[in-house]
Amino acid sequence: MISSLLSFNDIEEIASYIETKDEINLLKFISNKGDIIDFLHTIRNTIYYQKPTVSFKIKSENFSADMVFDKSQFLYNIPNKEFLSLNYNKLIFNFSYPTVHSINPLDNILTCIKSINNKQFNINQMQELKEIVGILPVKDYNYIIDYIKKNIISKLNTISIFDTKRDIKTKFTFNNEDVINILFFVCKYSLSYLQQLKVILMKESNFTYTDFDRITVEQSINYYKVLKEMTNDREQQ
Amino acid sequence: MTENSNNLSDIIKIIQNNNNIEVKLPQSKETISVKRLNLKSISELSPIISQGDSNKIIIDYNKFLIKNVKSRVNRDISYLDYYTTAITLRSAENSTYKDMNLKEIINNLNIDSLKHKTEETIIEDNITFHIKFELPNIDRLQGIINKVNTSESSDLLFFSVFKYIKQIEIISKDSKSLVNSIGDLKTIYDIISYKVLNKISIITSSIEKELYSLFKVNIETDTSFLYSI
Predict the structure, then answer these.
(1) Are residues B155 and B98 in the same domain?
(2) Domain ranges of chain A
(3) Residues in CB range of B55: below 8 A, 6 or more apart
(4) What tens digit of pLDDT does each residue of B189-205 get?
(5) Same domain for B83 and B165?
(6) Tens digit of each residue's pLDDT (9 = 90 or more) over B75-104
(7) Which one of A105, A133, A194, A225 counts the least CB within 10 Å of its CB?
(8) Are residues B185 and B72 both part of a single domain?
(9) Hey, are the CB atoms on A135 and B36 less than 8 Å from each other?
(10) Any chain B CB within 8 A of the CB of A22?
């Protein structure tokens, strides 16, 4: 596993979920990367790993082209992590950015509640959190959700996915669709291509399965190119 | 002041200790403390409202409303007290409903202004129906809605019309009987002619209108009343 980067094995895992349209496991994968801020940084780090620019095919109504983006043009305005505290109706709530783990959008918003009084909550304690939220009077519940939307979700909605500076701008909105779509920028390869690449590198260069936890897809492609050149050289000799 | 605790049951206790409101019952003149509506209870409305059958929605919605008020007051209360409790519960969570201020409605409530017909005699095919009308208490209201088991509009009509009937005396040429139990009233409802039912419903509609002018909202037919919180 590479810290704050998606490894070859990660991308292969994502590709398999995308191919089978397995939203539940995609969300599980996303939540394993931490909260939404951690996840977006991981995507950004992976995309710009050892590269100052990246290119994507951008399509709009009157425009379609491969465009190059530097770091100031893709996934920017990601807010800094922060904790907010709210003293409401004899309870102290601590909030921070959500973790996207559920197909139910409200469950994801609830993960912004990191603690009530000193009781900590993570995505494995959602049942306990829901039990507490369930007994909150409706007005209190609405107040908490409004507070989260105004102070946390609104900041996520200022993130830009990309800006071509040619009036083609895509804003990020905090919902499952936008979060999952971000994965498509980092997972540009088909599952079969990734599997072939893996088999070749394991067979011809003695890579082990766990080696793919430590390298990116781009690195593996580079290794493959080197291997191919070496094989070609050997054949010419 | 904040009560600090990291124990789940302590947090639940803090919430439960701080979620009561006072309801001033206009008829019994009592002030009672009731548990506020929470998310869990309101979320039970979703499957009710999303049913395809509008009659079933109204029936199940009323069952939900009665059950929720009854479980909070823990006693048999009058219809006006039931109505007031339901509106106060709604108002505590959101006092605005269709541009109206529910708190103002409750604060300015004058139940003495409510005047409705209490008796009527209908003669049809040589049978005399002497009917007494009364606003039901919550136990009787629950009994009536529980008699409604299907989503037929005729069943819904039984609830809307017969909930205001206290008793019917039926006098024919050689017999006289008094019907006041919910079960017997349902039997009468099933067999009376449309003409008689129509005459009864004119009176129950006027009672409903009186209630509407008093409370400015019909909590029994407008399902968005609770769902829109």
Answers:
(1) no
(2) 8-53+176-225, 84-156
(3) B151, B152, B153, B155, B156
(4) 999 999 999 999 999 99
(5) no
(6) 999 999 999 999 999 999 999 999 999 999
(7) A225
(8) no
(9) no
(10) no
Q: Which of residues 126-145 of A touch B (CB under 8 A)?
A: 128, 131-142
Q: How far is B1 from chain A (nearest CA, A)?
A: 6
Quick one: B85 and B69 in the same domain? yes
Quick check: A116 and B92 CB within 8 A? no
Per-residue model confidence as pLDDT tens digits over A89-112:
899 999 999 999 999 999 999 999
Q: How far apart are CA A137 and CA A53, in angstroms?
A: 50
Query: Cα(B229)–Cα(A224) distance, rounded to whole angstroms?
Result: 60
What are the pLDDT digits (tens) for B168-195?
Answer: 999 998 899 999 999 999 999 999 999 9
Same domain, B60 and B94: yes
B37/A137 CB distance under 8 A:
yes
ipTM of this predicted structure: 0.87
Quick check: B49 contacting A, CB < 8 Å? no
Answer yes or no: do B123 and B196 share one domain: yes
d(CA B182, CA B144): 6
Domain range for B154 is 119-213
Count of domains observed in chain B? 2
**Interface check A118 vs B, CB under 8 A:** yes
Q: Which residues of B touch A104 (CB under 8 A)?
A: none
Specify whether B205 is located in the same domain as B143: yes
Contact partners, residue B107, CB within 8 Å, separation at least 6: none
Task: Report phi then psi at A50, rounded to 5.
Answer: 60, 25
The answer to whether A170 touches A161, Cβ cutoff 8 Å, is yes
